[in-house]
Amino acid sequence: MASEGVMISLLAPMYHNVVHHWSDDIYTIQERLFARHLQWLRLTDHHPVTISQIADWLDGRGSLPSRAYLITFDDGFLDTLEVALPLLQQFRATACIFVTTSWCGIKEGPPSTRGHPMLTWSQLRQLADAGVEVGAHTVTHPFLTDIAPESAWEEIHHAKHEIEDRLGREVQAFSYPNSKHNPLIREMVQRAGYRLAFGGNFGLSHRETDPYNLYRPCIYNFCKVPEFLLSLSTGVDVRTRYGNWRRQLRTLKYVTNIMDPRK
């Protein structure tokens, strides 16, 4: 545990897909890069923690190591079991997967999943038995702020109970689809019995952070080690910075081209 006077923070990077080979989809991380992220978390003396530890810390009933982290996955993709799990075990990393319950077992997910196969309930049970915690990510993945409150409640409430009924394990954590939430949605999540919930803000969570709006930076396929560490430690939105850099580079090339005296 952290020494007295040390500021405790929580890193909770968000992943979607981890695959064997390179993909130009920004949400799909090659396994070699994922392994380097886990390696650097170890080298920088970060310590894995569980959802229960985080919830107890936020409730004031427990503490965390000074550099705590939890790997998180959204949606419920099959590659979390087939590709990511062996690396999580190799580096002894803790993780939580947030499942969209109606997508379980779909071989080619809906458009928002970019066609990746989803975990079946049996495969999800394998993940849970291997130590990966399971959280809820609604039933159908709607933007909760865009639907009627009664529909949002059903999405939040039913997802928790379906996972618990099928896996026989308590679901303590929730993840907002597309990080869309507001005070009413957060109150629903709390009322449904979840102990905490993750949004999508970049940066670190502290004990004073709203437990129903914890920080969780999204990790993209261009996040090599420097970008990964920058994203986690400073709260910089690397996707925005990367996009700005690309636009600036294109502008520079255009200006250089039209000013070339040889043309």
Secondary-structure blueprint:
Elements lengths: L8 E3 L2 E2 L1 E3 L8 E3 H13 L3 E2 L2 H8 L8 E3 L1 E5 L3 H12 L4 E5 L21 H9 L3 E4 L12 H19 L5 E3 L7 H9 L4 E3 L26 H10 L3 H21 L5
Parallel strand pairs: 1-6, 2-7, 3-4, 5-6, 7-8, 8-9, 10-11
Helix pairs in contact: 1-3, 5-6
Describe the structure.
The protein has 263 residues and is an alpha/beta fold. It has one domain: Glycoside hydrolase/deacetylase (TIM Barrel, Alpha-Beta Barrel), CATH 3.20.20.370. 38% of the residues lie in helices and 14% in strands. It is built from 8 helices and 11 strands. The strands form 4 sheets. It has a 4-stranded parallel sheet with strand order 2-7-8-9. A 3-stranded parallel sheet has the order 1-6-5, with no helix packed on it. Helix 3 (79-90) links the parallel strand 7 (71-75) and strand 8. The relative contact order is 0.15.
Summarize the structure.
The chain has 263 residues and is α/β, with parallel strands linked by helices. The chain contains eight helices and eleven strands.
| Helix-strand makeup class | alpha/beta
Distance between the termini: 65 Å
Estimate the helix proportion, in percent.
25-40%
The number of distinct β-strands equals 11
Overall pLDDT confidence: 86
Using only C-alpha atoms, the radius of gyration works out to 19 Å
Q: Strand order across the biggest sheet?
A: 2-7-8-9
Note the total helix count: 8
Which percent range describes the beta-strand content?
A: 5-15%
Can you identify the CATH class?
Answer: Alpha Beta
Which term fits the overall shape?
globular
Question: Do you know the CATH architecture?
Answer: Alpha-Beta Barrel
